[in-house]
């Protein structure tokens, strides 16, 4: 069996860089732990894409969207869709943000 696929949207890449930088301003070690936790969560989701909870949004472009928290960083949420042989990561957002509003304007 080949490795599962993890596709990251441009917005997900930007979110990841932003979260990493924000955490890194306070602690470089925590930023490294965050990045490793995100990658581990991506890998686990890619192996079992339906484990995240369905996340209902009115944005028709996001039908089938799922959500899970980053392991050990529970305030950071990964929004993704299952694809053949893996996942497509749509966004990585902090739970304190207005997640519903952000996702409603997602292209």
Q: What does this 3D model show about the protein?
A:
With 107 residues, the protein is an alpha+beta fold. Helix content is 40%, strand content 29%. A five-stranded mixed sheet has the order 1-5-4-3-2. The N and C termini lie far apart (33 Å).
Oligomer: single chain
Radius of gyration: 13 Å
Biggest sheet architecture:
5 strands, mixed
Taken as a percent bin, the fraction of beta residues is 25-35%
SSE layout and pairings?
Elements: E1 5-8, H1 10-26, H2 28-47, E2 53-54, E3 66-70, E4 73-83, E5 86-94, H3 99-104
Parallel strand pairs: 1-5
Antiparallel strand pairs: 2-3, 3-4, 4-5
Helix pairs in contact: 1-2
Can you give me a brief rundown of this structure?
With 107 residues, the chain is an alpha+beta fold. 40% of the residues lie in helices and 29% in strands.
Feature tags:
alpha+beta, YaeB-like fold, single chain, 5 strands, 107 residues, five-stranded mixed β-sheet, 3 helices
């Amino acid at each position: 069996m080949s490795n599962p696929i993890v596709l990251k949207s441009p917005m997900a890449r930007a979110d990841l860089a932003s979260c990493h930088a924000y955490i890194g301003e306070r602690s470089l070690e925590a930023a490294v732990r965050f990045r490793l936790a995100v990658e581990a969560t991506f890998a686990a989701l890619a192996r079992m894409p339906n484990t995240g909870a369905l996340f209902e949004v009115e944005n028709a472009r996001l039908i089938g969207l799922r959500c899970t928290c980053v392991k050990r960083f529970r305030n950071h949420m990964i929004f993704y869709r299952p694809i053949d042989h893996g996942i497509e990561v749509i966004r990585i957002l902090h739970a304190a943000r207005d997640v519903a509003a952000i996702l409603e304007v997602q292209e």
